[in-house]
Design a protein that fits this description.
Aminoglycoside 3'-phosphotransferase, Chain: A, domain 2, three-stranded antiparallel sheet, elongated
C-alpha cells in the first residue's frame, strides 16, 4: 500500500489550540488563520499550504480561491469554535446527517442537541446561524489522496471529532461520499500515548482478520502507516445501531467466539506479576490508602492462585456499550486500541459491567450476573489493571469507582461464584 506524506509542522502541540492542532492534522501542514480579506493581502509565494477561517462567506471563499486555495471544506463547529468536539461538513445535507453517527453523547443536553441537529437538517437546514470553520488548501491533502487511492472516491467529505481524554487524545475522521455513504473512519493520534494505542489497534485488527468467524463482527483495516511523523489508521465503518447498555446473550456469544479463536492457559503467577509491575509504577502517586489496597489484592492473589492457571485470550480492553453495534441480531465491535492478545477471559465481561455502572447506572449497585461471575481474585486484579489504564487517560472519576468497588469486595458486599471455566 502506498505511503502518503503528511507535511508536519514543527510548532509544538503545547502552543496550539485544540482546534488548530486538529486542523493541522487534517490539512497535513501548518494552517494559517484568516479573519477577513485583508489577511489575504499578506500572503505571498511562501504562504502556508492551508488556511482556515471562522467566516465562510461566499465573498471570502472566492477571495481565498483566487489566492490559489482551490480545495475547500466548510464545517459546522459543535458545540462551539472555542470548545470543538465535532466538526461536520455542510456542503451536503446527506453527509451532515451521516456525520451524526460518529457522535454518541452521554449527557442528556448533548443528546438533545444532536437530535435537534438531525431534526432541522432533515427539513432543509444547512447550517446558517451557527459557527462555521472554513479550511482551504492549494492541492488535495494527503488524506484526500489516500481516500481516493483506497476507495476510488475523488471528492470525499469529512467529519472530524476530537477525543475528550487529553492524555490519549486523537483526531477521528469520518470519511464519506457526497451522498452521505460512510466509507470508513480514520484515526490520527495527537499524543505519544495515543499513537501507541492506534498502532496497537492496527496490529490487533490485522491479526483478528485471520479468523473467519470474527470478520463479520469487526471493522476491516483499509490502511495503516506512518506519514512523516504522523500515524494514520483507516478502517471500514460498521453498520447497525449502538448496542444495548445491559449485558445480553449477543455480548456473551461474541466473547465466546473470541475465546474459540484464541485461548491459552497461563500460570496465575504470570498474570499477577504483569499486573504488579504496572501497578507498582503508579501506586506511589495514588496515596497510602491505594497502596494498601493494591498490596492486599496482590497478597490475596498470590495465595489464591498458587499453582493454578487462568484461561486467557483476546481482550478488547474497552468492551463497553458505546463501542458496540447491533446488526442483523449480531454484535459488532470497534475501537480496539486497548486490546491485548492474552488477558484473563473474564476481564472484558467485568469491564462492560463496570462501564455500564459508571455511565448509566446512577445509584444502582454493582452486581455481576451469576452466569457471568468469575472468581473474586480475577475481578480485583482486573480493577488494579483498569486503574493503571484510567490514570494514563487522566480519568479520575473511573479511578474512584474502581476504589469503591475494591473496598466493597474486601468488605464482602459482593456475591461471587467460582467459574471452573476461568480458573483451572
Amino acid at each position: 500500500m502506498p505511503v502518503f506524506e503528511l507535511r508536519a509542522d514543527s510548532q509544538p502541540f503545547g502552543t496550539e489550540s485544540l482546534l488548530t492542532r486538529a486542523l493541522r492534522l487534517f490539512a497535513g501542514s501548518a494552517v494559517c488563520p484568516i479573519r477577513d480579506e485583508k489577511d489575504l493581502t499578506h500572503l505571498d509565494n511562501d504562504a502556508p499550504a492551508a488556511v482556515f477561517s471562522s467566516s465562510s462567506s461566499t465573498k471570502l471563499k472566492e477571495a481565498i480561491r483566487k489566492k490559489g486555495y482551490l480545495q475547500q471544506h466548510t464545517f459546522l463547529a459543535v458545540p462551539s469554535r472555542r470548545a470543538p468536539r465535532w466538526l461536520v461538513p455542510i456542503q451536503s445535507r446527506y453527509a451532515l446527517l451521516a456525520a451524526t453517527q460518529m457522535y454518541e453523547p452521554h449527557k442528556w443536553i448533548m443528546r438533545l442537541l444532536k437530535q435537534s441537529l438531525i431534526g432541522v437538517t432533515k427539513i432543509g437546514w444547512t447550517g446558517w446561524c451557527c459557527p462555521h470553520i472554513l479550511v482551504a488548501t492549494k492541492d488535495m491533502t494527503a488524506l484526500e489522496q489516500l481516500v481516493e487511492a483506497v476507495t476510488s472516491e475523488p471528492a470525499p467529505l469529512f467529519a472530524l471529532s476530537v477525543g475528550r481524554q487529553a492524555a490519549v487524545r486523537k483526531l477521528t475522521i469520518q470519511v464519506m461520499r457526497p451522498n452521505g455513504e460512510t466509507l470508513g473512519y480514520m484515526k490520527l493520534p495527537l499524543t505519544k500515548a495515543a499513537t501507541e494505542r492506534v498502532r496497537n489497534e492496527a496490529r490487533v485488527l490485522e491479526r483478528l482478520w485471520n479468523f473467519a468467524s470474527l470478520r463479520p463482527h469487526i471493522p476491516r483495516l483499509l490502511y495503516a502507516g506512518d506519514c512523516n511523523g504522523t500515524y494514520v489508521l483507516f478502517q471500514r465503518s460498521l453498520q447497525g445501531t449502538r448496542g444495548p447498555t445491559t449485558f445480553t446473550e449477543m455480548h456473551r456469544s461474541f466473547l465466546e467466539k473470541m475465546r474459540a479463536a484464541h485461548t491459552i492457559k497461563v500460570p496465575g503467577q504470570n498474570i499477577i506479576e504483569a499486573v504488579a509491575t504496572k501497578w507498582e509504577a503508579v501506586a506511589p502517586v495514588l496515596g497510602a490508602e491505594w497502596e494498601h489496597l493494591g498490596q492486599e489484592v496482590l497478597r490475596r492473589a498470590n495465595r489464591e492462585l498458587e499453582g493454578k492457571t487462568l484461561r486467557c485470550g483476546v481482550m478488547h480492553g474497552d468492551f463497553a456499550p458505546w463501542n458496540t453495534r447491533v446488526w442483523e441480531e449480531r454484535m459488532l465491535l470497534f475501537d480496539w486500541e486497548s486490546s491485548s492478545w492474552e488477558a484473563p477471559i473474564s476481564w472484558d465481561t467485568f469491564h462492560f459491567h463496570v462501564q455500564a455502572l459508571y455511565s448509566f447506572g446512577g445509584n444502582r449497585a454493582f452486581q455481576m450476573p451469576k452466569r457471568e461471575m468469575n472468581d473474586e481474585i480475577s475481578f480485583m486484579l482486573y480493577l488494579l489493571n483498569a486503574v493503571v489504564q484510567y490514570l494514563a487517560e487522566e480519568n479520575q472519576l473511573a479511578v474512584s469507582l474502581c476504589k469503591t468497588l475494591l473496598i466493597r469486595t474486601f468488605q464482602g458486599k459482593q456475591a461471587w461464584m467460582s467459574d471452573p471455566a476461568v480458573v483451572a
